[in-house]
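Example with several molecule types.
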Amino acid sequence: MLTRIDHIGIACFDLDRTVEFYRATYGFEVFHTEVNEEQGVREAMLKVNETSDGGASYIQLLEPIREDSAVGKWLARHGEGVHHIAFGTADVDGDAAAVRDKGVRVLYEEPRRGSMGSRITFLHPKDCHGVLTELVTAAAERRNAH
Ligand code: CMX
Ligand code: CO
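Resulting structure tokens for the full complex:
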């Protein structure tokens, strides 16, 4: 079951400048930063609020580390902006399988590593009314489930 908006992923050319915009304009502080080599991004997670399922909602700011990455290609075509939305679930494997059964393309056979030790997968934007959609199980949810 999808129980929260885990994050909104925003593609930017300059992570440090974009982080500074979110801090100066809204007062959001950086909760976590990392480089995800596999996804081809340097990212910052800004926590907006905690959620009733024990998780939280974040803004995920993404700067490509390679031009041929998903975010690099998208930025070259569209410029900066909202790149994807992510729903949180305690069971990314089960929810991805259920969505796949409904005929939506799930991009990964098995969920991969996302921010802060989470497990993530993506649904093809062409099957989701133009929205690249991510499903996430946070690391804490995995610990609680086992
Ligand atoms: N939102 C909506 N539509 C998108 C999109 C996005 N973010 N990215 C691509 N598309 C659309 C394009 O506009 C294009 O549509 P048209 O053919 O109508 O022009 C179509 O999808 C194909 O686009 P493309 O540029 O050829 O891109 P690819 O097919 O090579 O890749 C996708 C698209 C979704 C498969 C790829 O972006 C992907 O694998 N994404 C998942 C991984 C990811 O995004 N990682 C970064 C974030 C990591 C994180 O959140 O932790
Ligand atoms: Co994301």
